[in-house]
Design goal:
globular, 46% strand
Length: 137
């Protein structure tokens, strides 16, 4: 794996899936038994992950995503990436659509398999702060 550019794999995932707003493109990047752990909740399986992305995107109007910084360990088995997304709340926060603009910052740690497929993604984000902004605290 040391010869694989795991950063490039993750950056391509960001571009093809999130920036292009194309959930189905995840099928080219993630293993069939892919797991995302987001906010302590696990979504297991490629198809479940694609549906999770689809639902996520449907809750944000004017969605934009950018990668801030991405780097990998020497072996290319782990990638850490800082990212930012923004848009307008369409039910993303609090289950109600208010079209309030927001920005979210997060960190993703990826497990990259020797074949270059993404196996696991652990995501942490400033969801509490975004929620507080939405409800005016």
């Amino acid at each position: 794996m040391a010869n694989n550019n795991a950063v490039e794999i993750v950056e391509n995932f960001w571009r093809e899936v999130w920036q292009a707003k194309n959930p189905q493109a995840a099928a080219y990047f993630v293993a069939e038994d892919f797991v995302i752990t987001s906010g302590g909740v696990e979504v297991v399986g490629r198809e479940a992950f694609i549906e999770w992305i689809r639902t996520f995107l449907s809750k944000i109007e004017e969605f934009t995503f950018c990668s801030i910084e991405t780097f990998q360990n020497e072996e290319g088995t782990r990638v850490a990436s800082r990212w930012k997304l923004s848009g307008k709340n369409n039910g993303f926060v609090g289950g109600r659509s208010c079209s309030t603009s927001f920005e979210m910052i997060g960190t993703a740690v990826w497990e990259v398999r020797p074949d270059g497929l993404l196996a696991h993604n652990w995501v942490e984000r400033n969801a509490l702060e975004v929620h507080r902004d939405m409800i005016g605290l």
